[in-house]
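Quick question, first post here. What does this chain look like in 3D?
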Amino acid sequence: MLFMLPTLLLALAPCLPQDPASHEALQSLLDQAKQAGPAAVLQLADQSDLLTADDWQEQALEILATSDGPSKLLLIRLLTQAGGMPNANAVLDLLNGEREMALAALATLDLGAFDGDEAIQTGLIEWLGEQVPDDDAQLFCEASLVLYNLGDGPRRRAALRHLSRTRESLQDYTVQQGALALGRTAAVLEADTMDVLEVMAAGIGADAPLARALLKQEDQRARFRSKLEALEQLHATNQAQNHSSTLDSGDVELLERILLMAQRDHMEGGNYSREEMLAGAASGMLNVLDPYSTYFSGDEYRDFWFDLNPEYGGIGAYVNTINGIFTIIRPIYSGPAYKVGLLSDDRIFTVDGWSTVDQPNDEVIKRLKGPPGTEVKLEVFRDGWTEPKEIVVERQKIELPVLQQEMLPGNVLYLELIGFTVDCGYRVATAIHEAQKNGELSGVVLDLRNNPGGSLSQAVRVCDVFLPPNKLIVTTRARIGEVERHQTRAKALVPEDIPLTILTNEHSASASEIVAGALSIHGRATTIGERTHGKGSVQQLRPLPGMDDEPFNDENRNRQKDEWEEYDDVNGNGQYDFGPKVKLTIAYYFLPDGSTIHTQRDHEGKVIEKGGVEPDIKVAFGRYEPIVLRELNRLLDEDKFNTYAKKLYDADTDLAVQLAEYDARSTEQYPGWADYYLSLETYLEEDIVRQWVRRQLRAMVSDLRGKMFPGGGFRGDFEEDPQLQAAIAEVLKAIGSNTSDVPEYATVFAKKEKPKKA
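> Answer (accepted):
Ran it through. Tokens below.
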């Protein structure tokens, strides 16, 4: 809702103090605009500092009422960018001016702020109806495209009808411009339009590259359409055949017979309820279509919803039952448990006097959770204490961390984005700005490895941090041809002179692929690592009619059931029940260059074209040889690495933190190393042993540091992570430096790489 703020402020303008500086800046822009052409006026508006101010819009609207020419264009552009959109007539009047002014007006309409505006759509249709395509084919086609992008279904069809008029022209230029414009829509192209594009693509004119890109895009669309048609045929009703692929009453009876047979005769049939069996049948049917469409039972949906919205009221800790005792595995370092002194390995004996010993995890967690602001009394024991202590924790709304950060040597900021949840774009921008305040920032490494995706809007917001406004990020196209264009809306929050590298691997999916692909295509980031997963599809959750969630009292009005909120236990089972949901794939993603990241499969599920984003620089994460893995497993099973690390940690915590952060890939600082290494009786090289001891140390010192190391394992460790090392080198190269200029990198990177497993 942030985009509504300028409009709200505009409405309140009479109540706000007037800022002479803003008024002077506005007048200065108007003076510059009078001497500039339309393209320069747009640039003046888009780069103006006024867009971040909020006390000039009322004056701009007053001046707009009596303005014309460049001044009018400037004011319209400024107001549109700031959210205080002018009325339709003010914009449409510019279409009847000189050609360049009309094109600038169309570019302003296409910013996205006028999406669905009835007056604009009506005005464009009237204007187009009065035009002859041959008079100015480019202007006519651009206006039609703007109508298509802004309009609803009927207006889009009107735009296509106007573009089709160009096919009747006797002038080659008009026909060509019309073909290019039609190719930029989501419409199925006619054969004659394809012929025109193919002729243009084979030439050497200025429009040849665009024609080639459009033909490639249309080829991808055709493959998707063929796939969808095949699926339709597979599942279409065919009463004339004995083996129909759809369900009539006989087929439903068939499923019922299979269900009864399985429950009666299958060795595991008695271990599954009827509901579980039917859920499996529903999931199987949806999985025929693609790997991402599925059926959620109420319990499965509860877990799914929590993953998307990882917030709750509680103490803030990762917990588990170990040897019958409820134990804190690790506190969340921004949460209340850590703030009152609870640490990893603390054991919780009681919760408000209720014993946790040999109780199910879920039951203990349920008692720990509650409304934010309430208190819970814990009886806690820690190694070294002579008796348990009573600790009171005030519950808070817990937000699981989605962004981990670490400032690396050479002022390189490393950000690990774990998922695309609420506000992650803001969090990325905040982390970078804080790093800038604390000193010089050489560049940023954004780690999207193992990031499964999440919110599409947050993927766009992350791109917004690094790109100027009106940059296309992704287009979604649905089965019925509906198109959604998602582009940046505000000025970049991070200057372009701060280099950005992005790390990807085969587990980077969906929103991760959109961010990596879009920022690479726009030249803002260098992607490094491995090809991404290839999930370029949009899923939508839909409830099943008549199978609703149980009613609840939405105290905080967030439209979701929180743990502490009262509810109507309809079925009397003592817990809140969600209704089942179906997750359906309803659209595909396309990147700004028209390519898709989606892996294409035939109706049998076989891959026919691999998707994903290919990194700009390919770097593999090395793996150990089988003989090394076998020996590592032996030492891990015998707890050899952890035992030494724990002894070092207990003896000298400062040294433990120092080595965890940087040990120069040397064993000289590790106490008693020679005797320890001999005691292992191993054929592993000392450096591999050092890697795994240090890996244990990095996990142990999190409580002392008050935060985890980003990444996990060897990922995120600049001493051991070859992909991160390549990203660091690329950042330093972009600012005219190199790794030999930073002592830590000069020491570590110069040493021979050892293969390792992530």
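The first strand starts at residue 294 and ends at 296.
The chain has four domains: 2-226, 311-399, 403-539+586-618, 626-750.
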